[in-house]
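TODO from last week: model H+ Antiporter protein.
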Amino acid sequence: MVGNHRSVSTQYETGRSSARSDSEQPVAPAGWRVLAPFRYREYRLLIAAVSLSIFAEGMWAVVMALQVIELSNDPAALSLVATCLGAGLVGFVLVGGLAADRLSQRGIIIVVEAVNTVAVTAVAVLGFVDALRIWHMAVAAAALGIAAAFFFPAYSAILPRILPPEQLLAANGIEGVVRPVFQRAVGPAIAGLVVGALFPSAGALVVAVLFATGLALLVATRPPKAKDTGAQHEPRPHLLRDLRDGWVFMLRTPWLLWTLLFASLFVLVVLGPIEVLLPFVVAERFTHGAQTYGFILAFFGLGSALGALGVSSRRLPRRYLTVMMAMWSVGSVPLVIVGVTSSFPLMALATFVIGVTDGTAMVIWGTLLQRRVPPELLGRVSSLDFFVSLAFMPVSFAIVGPLSKIVSMEAIFLAAGLLPVLLAAVAVWAAKMHRDEVAHPLR
């Protein structure tokens, strides 16, 4: 959820500007700032491919679950498949960061989309010929998880090579709108319709077609221009030294280190109650629990999309670190309402506000990664950010269930809503973020 610090040097900004296409204008009217990146052909192809991939991922989450249930109506089987996906992601995300800094990011993204296409196509074909087994699903899930571990660092690192710095906020905002809409709403809904009308293998086939179309768009892109630095011809250090350099940079960069520390504790405190306890809260307090839970998630997704769109339509806030930390911390306070209310409008409003603040903070954070982390370290720092967020996710899931048996739901959501405010205050003070953002203006 977090990560971007780089010393913004004049040479780097000049190099970034030189990557612009001579035939394209980099500036969009102020009222349409969020649309400015679409002036660049490579970005148009990239975001179209990424959007299709996100749509496919949203569908696959439902298709995978329904396919496993059809093969074996056993929660343990679905747990196995989901664990394989998560293990592939966590186990390879740091390797993905190393690869993004050493290899062609465009090449990595193309290979990732090819792996996605092959894995899901195999599931679809095996399903159609009635030869699909649980272990096939587990292998496919692991492949998709590993592919995702390589995708995120490469995607984060390639954006600054195809867009000028002043348009990275808009580009991150676009993805911040696309992801919740396609992955959390449209994708699952379409998958449910397709599988409901036909069968899970038909849904897998649609997912494979989406991945394949995205792959074709990525192949049509052109490699970004090489950075204007002579370092590219120097021998690269050992992989372990590469990884160490990423950690050293993080440890020596206060705003980055303390934001990552905040993020790890934020995930630990907040994610378990939302992902594990919220479904039970909704089921206990509302008559139609399943449908109500779906609407609650939809309000969160809508808020996240609107938050991302709103912040990306404007210039980066002058106090960007302060605003980002306030969005994540103060934005979690409505969880207190979620813990106590039996009113659907209040719960929907609370999750909507949480979504708005989370979407806003995520766009600012992604932009900071690309604006303040040196380009040669961006892949590794992005993967560290992703790794920190993922590492504490299963811990949060594991402890919140047993904890709910000895502590009330209301108390757990109270802590989840208020602790981030204290954690953010400590991080802002320890990293002297109010001074750092003034010393490194990004507007």
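Done. The longest helix spans residues 254-285.
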